[in-house]
Write a structure and sequence with these properties.
- This protein is of the alpha/beta class and 291 residues long.
- It is built from eleven helices and seven strands.
- Helix 5 packs antiparallel against helix 6.
- 44% of the residues are buried.
- The model has no long low-confidence stretch (mean pLDDT 89).
């Protein structure tokens, strides 16, 4: 049952079980929880593919949740990452703008998978991605493996600023958003403050996301088990690589507004982006594979 008057918020970074052994909830579970929370929109951003979007879009048709299609691209992979506790590579979060953005991103994903010549190792070229994007993609700076946050975590605000400037130059200043995420880690607020400051200096906007990997708190233990299977290790062996808290689940607009109150506009912009990016299944049906 959808709440009567929810705080408007769109989750722009969510992984389903189609992010193999990374996400722990199916696309329909994510949609159902998004509707229960009263979310304005939901982006499905699985790793390097559109594998779950049919089920995602079909589940959303009976709800008021706007559907956004995207992917988290894994850049610079030397080999498939199965069995690695903490997979390497930089991440780039891409959200498609309507049908044209979907087709452009689909083409980029297909080309990268073919170029890698082996399952689990797509090969991307940033110049090629920038050319394919046109004005049809929105870029978020992403998680700790995004170039901006990775540089910041390494202790270099200057390198983080340079990484952000590179994204803005490649994809357009009006297409790049600095992503703020808070999973309750001891340094999350510190990093978010630094990211907000870097964004302000660059004149770029910030948006809040949940970097979601499962629908609800009750799925946390399953998510840990999935991570252990991916790394080919026991839960005890993987303990040092697991998140400190089980907080990578969908949250309501009211909860996100409280968490990110110190960053004006970070919640409101998600709604504007949902209006700009979202489109329904029925307009894409001719291009979607049958399941």
């Amino acid at each position: 049952v959808r709440p009567e008057d929810p705080v408007p918020y769109a989750e722009l970074h969510a992984h389903s079980s189609f992010s193999f052994l990374d996400g722990a909830s199916g696309p329909a579970e994510l949609v159902e929880e998004a509707e229960r929370l009263g979310l304005y929109g939901l982006a499905l951003t699985d790793h390097d593919g559109f594998y779950g979007i049919v089920r995602f879009a079909e589940a959303a048709e009976m709800t008021r949740v706007k559907t956004i299609f995207g992917a988290e691209l894994s850049l610079g992979l030397p080999a498939p990452q199965k069995g690695v506790p903490d997979p390497v590579g930089n991440h780039l979060l891409v959200l498609a703008r309507g049908e044209q953005g979907y087709h452009r991103l689909s083409g980029a994903l297909t080309a990268a998978q073919l170029a890698g010549r082996e399952k689990g190792r797509p090969l991307y070229d940033l110049d090629d991605l920038a050319e394919r994007a046109g004005d049809s993609w929105v870029i978020l700076t992403g998680c700790r493996k995004g170039a901006v946050r990775r540089a910041l975590c390494a202790g270099s605000t200057q390198q983080a600023s340079l990484a952000l400037a590179d994204l803005a130059e490649r994809f357009g200043r009006d297409r790049v958003y600095v992503e703020l995420t808070n999973h309750g880690g001891p340094l999350d607020s510190t990093y978010n403050d630094a990211l907000a400051a870097i964004a302000g200096q660059a004149g770029l906007p910030v948006v809040a996301t949940g970097n979601v990997h499962y629908a609800a708190p009750s799925t946390h233990q399953l998510a840990q088990t999935v991570a252990a299977v991916r790394a080919n290790r026991s839960l005890d062996e993987l303990d040092g690589w697991l998140p400190a808290a089980g907080t990578a689940f969908l949250r309501s607009g009211a909860e996100m507004q409280t968490i990110f109150a110190r960053y004006p506009g970070a919640i409101e912009r998600t709604v504007g982006l949902a209006d700009e990016l979202a489109f329904p299944l029925r307009s894409l049906k001719p291009a979607l594979p049958k399941q």
